[in-house]
Design a protein that fits this description.
globular; 2 domains; 3 helices; 13-stranded antiparallel sheet; 229 residues; alpha+beta; Jelly Rolls
Length: 229
């Protein structure tokens, strides 16, 4: 037969476990970040200020010739650009060597929460070409974008999860002389110190309160005088 203390501990343990599971479920539901799409540079910059996020501008005047990959930035805004058959830098831009390749940017730290830029197609001499482009983020979100001119802006900002990669590719069909390219881009980033989201902070706080209450209640029960029979 269980003592009153053992029964109390069992009930309290089940209650705390259920509470923790409920909170964890709420956090998981919130974990899928909302992505905001921008087609205007001014609006994108205003979004950076509202977070707030630091800003890094990247251009490609110094990137020339063919390479397996290009890198840039530093620390919280470091990036790597790759394509299956390599990349080439020309006329203030970088593009894929093969027109069927995807141009992929990876942001090596998990501190980038916004990325936007002038993404488009070029011919094999670096001349602008418009068309319909597919843009995909690391979380699986896909955006199909009509590129009308060389100043067409495409940007994304995440409200919670960092953006780890961005891919530029053809939508549906590939033409022999259309290469995915980028003229410039902007990164919005935070410092390297990881700050818990509001949901995680609430969970940690409630877990601490529950632990404190459990210890206090156990102490009270254990200190109760035994009944005389």
């Amino acid at each position: 037969m269980q003592s009153p203390l053992q029964k109390y501990k069992k009930i309290y343990s089940v209650t705390c476990t259920a509470l923790a599971a409920t909170i964890a479920q709420c956090i998981c539901l919130r974990a899928s970040a909302a992505i905001t799409f921008f087609d205007d540079t001014a609006a994108f910059n205003a979004g950076l200020l509202s977070h707030p996020l630091s800003k890094y501008n990247q251009t490609f005047q110094t990137y020339t010739g063919a390479s397996a990959e290009f890198t840039g930035g530093a620390d919280e805004y470091a990036w790597i650009a790759t394509a299956a058959h390599g990349l080439v830098g020309e006329t203030d831009l970088i593009r894929t060597i093969n027109p069927s390749d995807t141009l992929k940017f990876q942001f090596t730290p998990d501190t980038v929460y916004a990325v936007g830029g002038l993404f488009h197609y070029t011919n094999n001499t670096g001349g602008f070409l418009g068309g319909v482009m597919k843009v995909q983020l690391n979380n699986g979100d896909v955006f199909v974008r009509s590129i009308d001119n060389a100043s067409t802006f495409t940007g994304f900002e995440s409200d919670s999860d960092s953006i780890l990669s961005l891919e530029l590719s053809h939508f549906q069909t590939t033409t022999p002389d259309n290469f995915a390219a980028v003229t410039s881009f902007v990164l919005g980033y935070t410092n390297a110190i990881s700050v818990p989201t509001p949901g995680v902070t609430a969970f940690l706080l409630m877990a601490g309160i529950a632990t404190t209450r459990r210890r206090r209640n156990e102490h009270k029960i254990e200190s109760l005088p035994a009944k005389k029979v």
